[in-house]
């Protein structure tokens, strides 16, 4: 029996459109299994565990993490970001991944009363909202809209200024719940961003905006927490350029700018921390990452209670990743395997978007950069089309899973209509098979066409 897709209107889609029986997932932000390096991880584990001198990796690790990995990460980041001064291993703290580390940053460097607000560049990585809420910031997360350069700095400064006025009126001038400790500082504000290949918008924050953001953070005693997890997944945005090894960062990280701008940080803790992860470049199951900040901040992070109790949260796997780095297996995997693979996926999806979605009036707000990267494409629907309705119809009618824009709003902040994203969609090209990406975009186009036709019919009847 031929499968027929039933539309909401009660009519049937043509049989030619009924090829939606194979589900397609353009939502899940995970690497496709074919992009994981199990053999390389296995070889690294064999090398580490076969050497009796490495028996320490089976025990509790040092607070700051596996020392050899910290040293290798410092060298590796030097090669990729090329800061003015070499990165010392003292600036590195090994973590259990970017999400776990964000929670530790908040536990150590914020007070849920004294720290006024969490400012999140929106659209935002929405799963971070619960991490902030768990640390006491319910109803104090504030959306900062993106602009063409990655963040609306005027909007942010107005918000910071108003927040400081409220704190002064409430006599909120010192930490309320956390007593002073010699290894930490309590910040007045947290600013959260994914400045390079942002999730979900794909934008790259400009260099001038990064510098101005550091100035604002210093002025208002804010800690900028950046998820720098997509930086190495980059390629030429023009498919005609062809594959090219891209082993230099497209932009300095905000933590690098804080280190160098105007003679360096205002105090020993600085105003920026880079949150890194091996989830996107090795495997999510590794649950291993790192943070970089000033040496005082990295040490303070290592003194988080859960880390002090059990030592580094990812000691054994950290030793395997060390072996992959020191043998240059990981660098080869990133630059020779992942970059070309993701470039093919990106260009396959973009070609389909240009062919069947842009003619329908959809737009992509990302600026036209020479470099593309990350996992995601952010689309704005035409007219009054509702993203949530499109998401529901795509799943029901086409077995297509996408994610609608309202998911990426900042939880609890309903003040600004521009940061509710009722007309936006995110597509991910990382998870599903590369050969179905084009078909997924075509299915989305069919849904949008039907929605536009039905909307036009209703308007004419009215």
From TrEMBL:
Tell me which CDD domains the record gives: AAT_like
Annotated Gene3D superfamilies:
Aspartate Aminotransferase, domain 1, Type I PLP-dependent aspartate aminotransferase-like (Major domain)
Give residue ranges for domain Aminotransferase class I/classII large.
53-444
Q: Which GO terms describe its molecular function?
A: 2-aminoadipate transaminase activity; pyridoxal phosphate binding
Q: Which InterPro entries match?
A: Aminotransferase_I/II_large, PyrdxlP-dep_Trfase, PyrdxlP-dep_Trfase_major, PyrdxlP-dep_Trfase_small
Organism's domain of life? Eukaryota
- An example Pfam family from this entry, by short name, is Aminotran_1_2
PANTHER family linked to this entry: AMINOTRANSFERASE, LD15494P
Give the protein's recorded name: Aminotransferase class I/classII large domain-containing protein
Q: Which organism is it from?
A: Capronia coronata CBS 617.96
Q: What is the lineage of its organism?
A: Eukaryota, Fungi, Dikarya, Ascomycota, Pezizomycotina
């Amino acid at each position: 029996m031929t499968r027929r897709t039933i539309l909401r209107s009660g009519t049937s889609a043509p049989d030619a459109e009924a090829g939606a029986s194979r589900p397609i997932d353009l939502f899940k932000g995970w690497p496709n299994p074919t992009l994981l390096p199990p053999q390389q991880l296995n070889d690294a584990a064999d090398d580490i565990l076969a050497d009796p001198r490495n028996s320490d990796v089976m025990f509790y690790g040092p607070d700051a993490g596996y020392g050899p990995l910290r040293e290798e990460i410092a060298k590796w980041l030097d090669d990729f970001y090329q800061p003015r001064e070499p990165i010392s291993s003292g600036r590195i703290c090994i973590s259990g991944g970017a999400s776990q580390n964000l929670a530790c940053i908040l536990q150590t460097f914020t007070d849920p009363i004294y720290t006024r607000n969490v400012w999140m560049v929106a659209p935002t990585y929405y799963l971070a909202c619960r991490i902030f809420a768990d640390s006491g910031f319910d109803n104090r997360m504030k959306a900062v809209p993106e602009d063409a350069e990655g963040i609306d700095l005027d909007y942010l400064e107005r918000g910071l200024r108003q927040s400081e006025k409220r704190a002064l009126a409430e006599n909120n001038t010192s930490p309320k719940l956390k007593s002073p400790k010699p290894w930490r500082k309590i910040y007045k504000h947290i600013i959260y961003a994914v400045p390079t290949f942002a999730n979900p918008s794909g934008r790259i924050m400009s260099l001038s905006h990064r510098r101005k953001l550091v100035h604002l953070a210093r002025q208002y005693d804010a800690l900028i927490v950046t998820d720098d997890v997509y930086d190495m997944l980059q390629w030429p945005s023009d498919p005609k350029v062809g594959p090219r090894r891209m082993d230099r960062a497209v932009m300095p990280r905000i933590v690098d700018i804080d280190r160098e701008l105007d003679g360096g940080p205002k105090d020993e803790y600085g105003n920026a921390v880079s949150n890194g992860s091996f989830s996107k470049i090795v495997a999510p199951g590794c649950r291993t990452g790192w943070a970089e900040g000033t040496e005082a901040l990295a040490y303070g992070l290592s003194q988080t209670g859960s880390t002090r109790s059990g030592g580094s949260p990812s000691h054994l796997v950290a030793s395997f990743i060390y072996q992959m780095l020191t043998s240059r297996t990981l660098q080869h995997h990133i630059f020779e395997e992942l970059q070309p693979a993701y470039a093919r996926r990106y260009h396959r999806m973009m070609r389909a978007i240009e062919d069947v979605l842009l003619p329908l009036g959809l737009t992509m707000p990302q600026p036209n950069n020479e470099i593309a990267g990350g996992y995601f494409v952010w689309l704005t629907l035409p007219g009054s089309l509702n993203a949530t309705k499109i998401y529901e119809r795509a799943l029901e009618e086409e077995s297509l899973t996408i994610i609608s824009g309202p998911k990426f709003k900042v939880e609890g902040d309903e003040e600004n209509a521009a940061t509710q994203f009722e007309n936006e969609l995110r597509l991910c090209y990382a998870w599903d098979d590369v050969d179905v990406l084009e078909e997924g975009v075509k299915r989305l186009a069919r849904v949008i066409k039907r929605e536009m036709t039905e909307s036009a019919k209703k308007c004419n009847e009215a």
